[in-house]
Amino acid sequence: MEQVADEHGNNATPTNGANIQHSQQGDIDMIRNDTPDNNNSIKANKEQESGNPTSTDADLSKLDDGKTLLYPQASSKFPMKTVDRIIDDILCDMSYICDFDTANSESEGTYRGLLRTASLEYSHKRQNMDTYAVGSFVDQVSLQTKYEYKSVTCPELNKVNVYYGILINPNLSLSDQDQVIDVPFYHLKISVKIRPYIETRKKQVGVTHYHLVDELHEFDAPDFPNFNKDEPTLEDYAIYVSNDTNRVLLVEIFQSEFSSKENKTDFKKENIMLRYKEAQNRLGDILPDIKVTPADCYNTMFKIFRSPLNRCSRDDPVRTIDGNNVSLNTHINPDWLVSKYQFQKHEAKDNDTGEITVEYEPPELSTYIDDHTVRGLRETYIRRCVELAFRGQLAIKVARKEELEANIKTRNALNALHTQFSISPLYQVCAETNVLRFQSNDFQNPLDMNFHFINLSTKFYYADRDIIRNYEILYSLDPENVGIYFDALSFIANAKGAYQLVAYCGKQSIVGKEALDNALRMFKLDPKQINMVDIDENFLLSIYKHEVRHANANVHADLKNAARVLAKYKQSDLLKFYVDYEPYQIVDQAYRTLEIDESVDDDIVQTAYSIKVTDAPGLIMDCSRALYTIAIKKRSMYLLNFLVDQCPIFHEFYSPSKYSYQDALNLLQVNENASDEVILNVFQQRWSNESIDEPDRLLNLKAALTKLSIEKKSKLIEHFLETGTIDPTCLPPENWPTGLNNIGNTCYLNSLLQYYFSIAPLREYILNYRDTMQDFETNTSTLKKQRRIGGREVSDNEVERSIQFTYQLRDLFRNMIFSKERCVTPTHELAYLAFAPSNVEVEFEVTDKLSVSDGTENKDNDENKIDVTLDSSLQSPSDTVSNPIRLPSPPPLIELDEPDVDMLKDEEQKKMENKKDIASSNKVAKISSDQLENALEMGRQQDVTECIGNVLYQLESASEPIKLDDELEQYDLIKKLFYGKTKQTIMPVNNSTKVPAKYERFLSLLVNVSDHPRDIYDALDSSFQDEYLTMEEYGDVKRTVSVTLLPTILHVQIQRVYYDRERFMPFKSIEPVPFTNKLYMDRYVETDNQELLEKKIETSKMKERLRYLHNRRKELLNRNKFGLSRKEAYMETIKFLKSDTLEKTDIDVTDNEETINGLNQLIEDVNNELNSIYTEINDLEGKISHQFDKFHNIGYTLFAVFIHRGEASYGHYWVYINDPNQSGIWRKYNDESVTEVNESEVFNFTEGNTATPYFLVFVKNEDKEGIEPLKRILDNPEIETLD
Question: Which segments does the entry list as coiled coil (predicted)?
Fold first, then answer.
């Protein structure tokens, strides 16, 4: 006899003899009556109730061969959905029915649910619907919810898969088990008929398309015997057929099996306890006084319904329920088994005792395969079990702690049921197992809920070809809404950034109404008031340019989509081109596209573009956008020319032919009488200075200039358009600076003279110089007698040679202004006086009279005078006159068409008056040819700073002092322009002794490349950093240096020449020192700004830490005498310890493995420390570079860069000078050659470049107007000889 323990731990005992087994107090346990007669009678009864296949079914099986499509016109049925769309419809179907009041809305052409409704009708509502969870049984042993049947009509080939699940709204807020029965549960049944023969032969690649059909084919209907459209509990259904293999997909959603009001009250705690009390009264003391919960009821009913489902055949024992079973009587009402759940009640009277025994026999469910009626009842039992299991598990989740402790067995039983919430089983039963789909379900893209994706029955993971197929099928089935489908396709293309989709959209000539209306609204146009026929494409383009100017990334993307829609509708190639090639908003994206760094030159950009489009032709549009972006960012004519050459479509829209001659003039804002030089000047100013609010602004300017070049046949403009630079040979001499011929080792002197010429105040002072030695001798001013220059007195001979030097320089400057030649030649006397140290005495002889030079030197036969034939090949014709005139500043430009005649007359009159006020020296230096050769050789060996000092000393010596300071040092224009002052403070560390501050005058700030500075600020920091020294007088001291007076012109000398003590020779360092065109000196100036002082202290600490890190890194990476770093030494030691050398040499190393482990740990420590050091260095360098970003009150602008190319003992010099009056262009002054260069050439910090800056010149921002490199006047006034 089988004993079954009940939930309270009691064992069941027999009460009706040996033939019937039952449980009085335990859980429901089905016990069969195993007498032969009884068993046979039950079997007979079931046979009478069962239904056998009809003759019609047999006939149909002969007609369906399983190889023929039963729905050949399926592809013409609408709506069409993919399995993803159908499953999503399943998930939100009940939300749509319940929340959107569709319960009574079903009529012809409309349905109350989503399953048969076209996506367009509900796509906008989808995001407001709740997504239900799908519950399934994973363990098919505890409860089978997945079935496979052979087809009735074609059992040899076809089969039907059936899945049962539950739908629950996960947005629940429950606090008690009583609330569980009120939660709406819906049953999901999916039946799929598969035709394997057709599947293997006609299955299409990609996403399967399912089409809604109204009725099943007569060969398919028998395979879905229990499908009834009129079933009262059926909430929604749909029949879909795939267009390729005619796979049938039947989806049915049923109401809850326990949704009646009676059921809802029966599962409340109050009613449950009433039943328990009644059972106690009926059964007596056998029942303890416990609390029964809804979870207990769900669990008991689950077991009742599961038992008949577990019978596999009619031969298996029938398990009945004892009417006196404790769980049966306390957890449910036993009468329900007969009245509601198709059980049969059997009563038997004991002949001996007269006691009546009651048993409940479940219905026969094992014959479901052949008996459709039984199958229907079985499905009901499956649904009840599924629902009870999930309700029971939900009740356990919300149960109170004491309820769980009192019903441990119920909790364990329910939790042991292996269930899950997942949509994977839905895909499996539909035979859709795309890996990407399941990845997508785990990480679902939010765009899948977007109405555009829903309209097109698409998911984000779909391949482009599948999205296109969906679009083509839907618009062919539903042509009235083709615009909406196209809107969806366009949105998906842009959302995915898929070029194939974008290209496909571009080939379509369809624009939907919604898309058009939305596009107009994005352009802030009212669709109701706009007639698109009357709108011009240029008007739309102007709106787009205006709107994107301040739009963020998201709005910009929307505007771009809108522009594409309007371009298609208007068939506007211009608007489409503009949007397709619009530059990237972030320049870094352009550099990343071409895989180059932002610092590269234009030619590298061109090379990178060519390589990229050759390797990946499909990316030519992206690469062209990147090139366009960089060209605009750099304002590079060179790159724009290359772009137009590579992409002819740019020439189509920015061709000069689009402009008339007058239009081009108007765009450039120049007069039709303007010269080529004026046009170029205006163009350059606009090209360089105008803000680029519209990306194609530069292309339009270029097209307009090209038009003028063609019309005017201008070689000057043509050359500029080709190269981006001005060809001086095409300019009249007055529009370009004058070059200087090299007369022998004078390249850096020429650079220096060009530099001084560009400083207008200095140039005007020299041009107006008229003092003579007689003036100094007869002047009784004490200032001249007491003055000191450079801390020493000035001798009469120094004054005399300085006057003569100034006259030589004055004549050269006049020649550079008035000469009609493109280059002039400095005199040998000027070169000698510039190179020879100022303390070298020079003899002068007095000539008979003061004369006017005609630009050539006096060629008499006096052997003591300069031999001008030393290098005749270097001489050039000259228009120089020795008597200078006072040069007027050019009048401001009033109009470009007609000059002001009166104004010109006034200027001419001033020139004639000024010439009478300036005298010239009547002395000539007595310099032999040997002396001159020695001076030129001295120039070859001399550093440029020595020459600068010599030149400035002579200019000061020839000048009258404005005032003298306390040390009698002369203050004059030179001091004002070029000299600053530093303050050195010595502060004893250990005592309070006050040390007077020391003030020093400086001509330039010296920085060293040997310190490996990261940039110009890092280099200057080294010069101004605090130092701790030991002085004999004060002991340990702290020395600080700050600037107390800044000059108008600031020189920064880069020290590049060092002495190699091993090779006993000088060498030049070519290490780059990056700089920009701006320099801010706030951090170096003496200040009481507390915030700035704190920043300096903080930066000093950072630099100290940085030095430590660099030293530590160097220490870790240094190599020993064997050429091994620390890490490499450890690794080699490990190799040695692991080798067989130790054994061969009988060397005994104790703890060998421990030693190896220790060395490995040391290697790991070195790696970790190096990684930490590199990270901290990068972090500190980044912080230091931005420490003083807010301190930009004392600003300088770079305007001259002296370059040396070569080695320490030889090389060539030139200078770059910026012209702020000519759109900020840079010119290269290379002796007689003066050419325009790109800014990138000036700021070239490429490693290994031997053409290195060694002298940088900055001007105060407020004094930039004093820089005037271009000064030419060719209409020389008549010069009279002065007595």
Answer: 1149-1183
